[in-house]
Each structure stands twice: as structure tokens, then as C-alpha cells.
Design brief:
Elements lengths: L2 H36 L5 E14 L9 E6 L3 E9 L3 E3 L3 E4 L2 H7 L4 E3 L3 E3 L7 E5 L7 E7 L4 H6 L6
Parallel strand pairs: 5-6
Antiparallel strand pairs: 1-2, 1-9, 2-3, 3-4, 3-5, 7-8, 8-9
């Protein structure tokens, strides 16, 4: 009797581990391609930035991460998020830019977004980013990127409307 539930739970856990492993490999490949194609345009980079997020609405897993690598170009802020759950799990790249059409065409595997609210001079050297609408099929996302130096925040001013 105990064998059936144990076996079912083991199969579900194993399927989840395999899915996360395969998804992580795809996201790592997306990151490598993105950085390779933008390496001549990157003017500033910050690895290992801690961040907080708030999701209201659907709550897609692409937006759930607590650390990220940040790259700034002359017209975009690229956020490569990841979290830890027994291993480093990478999320889909986020590209914040005013030039949404260009980046959507160039990088179809990334989420290309024009943020609704962007404040590089938030409290305690944090950068505040908000985008999306809360709803049943949509998500409102808020990020607080922590520990960004003054030089990095000046480079990020490209997104201020």
C-alpha cells in the first residue's frame, strides 16, 4: 500500500528534476548567445547582483530570481537572472529597452520589455524597475536591484523616459 504513493511521488520529483535540468541548459545557451552577440556593445557589466522581486497576477517563473548579472549597452539594460534550488537555475534573459522592436527581432528567446517605471536612484543604492499589468493572464513585476554602484546607475539612465 505504501509503495504506490511513494512510487508516484518519486516519478513526479524525477520528472521535475529532468525538466529543470533541460530548461537550465536551454537558458544557459540563450545567455551565451546573447552575450556573444552583444559583447562589442556592452559598456558596463555587474555580475552577482542581489535582487528582490514582487509578482502580482499570473506569476510566471521567468521573472522569479534572487540574483542576476547585469549588462548595460548604449540603449538597453540586460538582466540575466538566476536562483538557487539545489543548483543554479537560470531564467530567461530580460532586456529592458526603449527599442523593443529591434531587440525582439534580434533576440527572440528573451523577454524584451519597456519598463513602466524605472528609477536608478532609489533608496540605498537600489534600482527600481516595474512593468506589466496585474491580472488573471498577465503579471505585474517589480524588481529592486541591490548594491548598484553610482557609475552603474548613471549608465542605466538610458531607460529614464
Amino acid at each position: 500500500m505504501i509503495f504506490a504513493p511513494f512510487f508516484t511521488i518519486s516519478i513526479i520529483v524525477l520528472a521535475n528534476v529532468v525538466f529543470n535540468y533541460k530548461n537550465n541548459k536551454v537558458q544557459l545557451h540563450q545567455r551565451e548567445l546573447l552575450i556573444e552577440r552583444l559583447k562589442n556593445k556592452i559598456v558596463y557589466d555587474l555580475p552577482g547582483i542581489k535582487c528582490d522581486f514582487i509578482l502580482i497576477g499570473q506569476g510566471r517563473h521567468d521573472y522569479r530570481f534572487n540574483q542576476c548579472d547585469i549588462y548595460v549597452t548604449d540603449d538597453a539594460l540586460i538582466v540575466l537572472g538566476y536562483g538557487f534550488l539545489l543548483a543554479k537555475l537560470h531564467c530567461r534573459p530580460l532586456i529592458f529597452t526603449k527599442n523593443v522592436n529591434h531587440y525582439s527581432y534580434e533576440f527572440p528567446g528573451a523577454n524584451v520589455i519597456m519598463p513602466d517605471k524605472f528609477n536608478p536612484y532609489s533608496v540605498d543604492s537600489e534600482v527600481y524597475i516595474e512593468f506589466g499589468q496585474a491580472g488573471f493572464t498577465s503579471t505585474n513585476v517589480t524588481y529592486n536591484l541591490k548594491g548598484i554602484p553610482e557609475e552603474g546607475r548613471k549608465k542605466m539612465e538610458i531607460l529614464i523616459p
